[in-house]
Amino acid sequence: MKSTNPVFTGIETTIFETMSRLAMAHNAVNLGQGFPDVDGPQDIREEAARSLVEGPNQYPPMLGLPELREAVAEANSRFYGLDIDPKSEVIVTSGATEALADCIMALVSPGDEVVLIEPLYDCYLPMVRRAGGVPVRVRVSPPSWTLDEQALRAAFSDKTKAILINNPMNPTAKVFSEAELQLICDLCREHDAYAICDEVYEHLVFDGAEHRPLMTFEGMRERTVRIGSAGKTFSLTGWKVGYITGPAELLDPIGKAHQWVTFTTPPNLQRAVAYGLRKDDSYYQGLALDLAQKRDRMAKGLEAIGFTVLPCAATYFLTCGFERLGLGTTDVEACQRLVTEAGVAAVPVSAFYGGNAPTGFVRFCFCKQDWVIDEALARLSAFLTAARSESA
User: Fold this and answer.
1) At 176, is the secondary structure helix, strand, or coil?
2) Strands (E), the chain
3) What one-character DSSP code corresponds to residue 340?
4) What's the farthest any 2 CA atoms get from each other in the chain?
5) Inside any domain, residue 225
């Protein structure tokens, strides 16, 4: 038999799916995969249901329903002061992952270098490699997650086609500082590179932190594409509705890639997301406040039972050290013990690195109902108490 594509042949199943399967097999509380355990706002779901029944349910425009593209443009203006043409500068996609694939396929040619900041979402590397791109990784490490200026400068060269940045960042829960973002902008302009910005957690920021899109910086409007997600913004991850905003010159080839990947996205979901994006400020403020309270609930409990909880400025995730708990020498070993013996699924942070990763940290997801968080904490506490007794 002839070989299959080496980018995907033998690649391991995503860590999120692996841990979710283990969670089901062991009847564990799943704090591994990043999705809420309650559905999003009822009025948005009712809008989707009404639109589904009333129709039409045929192919919508390839680039997205006009009403959703207009709503995306309005949101860019409302939250960031960006003047976006909904007809030529917005594309609707079947989720942010498709949006990433479209952008990478359209902007990266074989041999082009793409700067990636790790730890990184696990689809980035195979997507860049499938496009023929050459990943150039820059590392931020726990506990500070500081972006090293010299390392980032060294990663850029005349071969750099783009940087792919996730801000706010999964799994670090980091919101990049103004100085870090300015450095990225300076390097993009100096090396004539594009910026592909995964900003799906844009509204999930806490404690007065602010998300600033790279597109708002001087000289970046024409070289930046930013990706948003209705799944994250409205806690409707199963809908898989994303959107790309960028200059028409870049969205033209990106739209061609989209045409041959999914072509379009269910029209009823698009109409409902358009409705949702126009919700008033109290919704967005309430979303962030609710998640911050869940973060604090989980962080307090994890610290009480011996985990070292790192700061969390955004996203759904807490990164924790386990060095005092006797869970093993690596984060993979620790997560395996937690899911099989404690009945709680987490994710090893090393899975977000391309190799030679720090192995002393695990990631917990806190976008869960309070009773789920409490159950997970109770299981962890009981397991660790019993383990200490056995070793005493």
Assistant:
1) coil
2) 29-30, 90-93, 113-118, 134-139, 160-166, 194-198, 224-229, 242-245, 308-309, 317-321, 344-345, 347-348, 361-365
3) I
4) 68
5) yes
- The SS3 call for residue 353 is coil
Residue 111, Cβ density class (10 Å: 0-12 exposed, 13-18 middle, ≥19 buried): exposed
Q: How far apart are CA 32 and CA 317, in angstroms?
A: 9
* CATH assignment at residue 152: 3.40.640.10
The residue assigned the tokens 């006009």 is: 66
**Alpha-carbon gap, residue 157 to 245, rounded angstroms:** 26
Q: Which of 279, 296, 321 is the last residue of a domain?
A: 279
Q: Please identify which residue in the block is written with the tokens 């108490």.
A: 385
- Model pLDDT for residues 49-84, shown as the tens digit of each residue: 999 999 999 999 999 999 999 999 999 999 999 999
Q: Is residue 6 situated within a structural domain?
A: no
Q: What are the structure tokens assigned to 253, written together?
A: 């080839």
End-to-end Cα, the chain, rounded Å: 57
* Residue 10 domain-assigned (yes or no): no
How many whole angstroms separate alpha carbon 343 and alpha carbon 23? 7
- pLDDT, tens digit (0-9, with 9 covering 90-100), for 327-367: 999 999 999 999 999 999 999 999 999 888 999 999 999 99
Identify the domain containing residue 242 by its residue range.
Answer: 42-279
In the chain, the number of structural domains is: 2
Q: Of 302, 182, 304, 195, which is closest to residue 244 (Cα–Cα)?
A: 195
Are 250 and 107 within 8 A, CB to CB? yes
CA distances from 81 to 65, 103, 161, 327, 368 (A): 23, 23, 27, 48, 32
351 DSSP assignment:
G
Judgement on whether residues 344 and 207 belong to the same structural domain of the protein: no
d(CA 218, CA 212): 12
